[in-house]
Known about the structure:
The protein has eight helices and no strands.
Amino acid sequence: MPGPTSIADAVGIHSVALPIVFLVVYVALFFVFLWKLRRNPVAVFIFMVAFCVFRVAAFAVRAAIAASDSLQNDLNWVLTANIIYTIGFFGLVYSAYSLLVRRAFVVRDLLRGPFGRLLPRVLIIVRVSLVAAITLGITGACLFALADPGSEKKTLGDTLRHVSLWIFLVLVALLLVNCLFVLRHDHSRSMLVLTAIAALLFARELYQILAWNKPEATDEIYFFTLSCLTELIAVILFLVPNVVPSKNEVEFSPHRNKDYV
C-alpha cells in the first residue's frame, strides 16, 4: 500500500465536496439557532450558535486544504483545521450538559436529594474538564506535528492527544448515564431526545478512540459518517420543539445560578 503523498493525505484530508456540504448545512443551522436564540435567549442556544461558527470555519479550512496542492503540505493549515474542529466540540458537549441541567429544573423531584445538591457544580466541573481536554488536545497536536520523528516530544504529544480523547469520552459517557437517570423521572419526548443526543455524542467519541493510530480509520468515509454525521444529527435534534425549555419553564431554586439561564 503506497504511503501518504502529503501531510493532508496522512491525516485523511482528500475530498473537497464533503466538507463543503457540511459547511453549507452549518451555515443554515447558524441562522436557525440565531433565530431560536432571539426567541428564547438561553445559554444552550448561545453555545449552539458558537458551535456552528466553529464548524463552518473548520470545514472551510478543510475544503481549502483539499482543493489546494500547496496547502496540503502546509503544516500550519492542517493544524488549524484540527484545532478549530477540536475547540468546536466544546460548545456541543457543554450545550448538552446545560440542557440536561435545565431539564432537571423542570422536573422538581430531581432537585431533592443528592442529584439536586450536585447541580450547582455540574457545569463548573464540565467546563473545567472540557477546557483541560481542549488544551491537552491542542498542545499534543502541536507537539506531535512539530517534533522530530521518534523524539520524546513527539511521544508526549501523542500521549496528550490520547488523554484528551479519553477526557471527552468520559464526559459524554457521564452525560449519557445522567440522561438515563433523569429519564427515569422525566418520560417526556424532550428527555428522550436529549438522551438520543447524548448517545450520538458517545458514539462519536467512541469512534475517535477506536480509530486512534489506525491508518485505515483516517478514511474520510469513516470520519464524515461516524464523527461529522453523528454530531450533525445531534445538533439537529436540539431543534426539536420544546427540547430546550424556556426561561419561564425553569423553576427558580436556591441551587439555580446564571449558568442555567
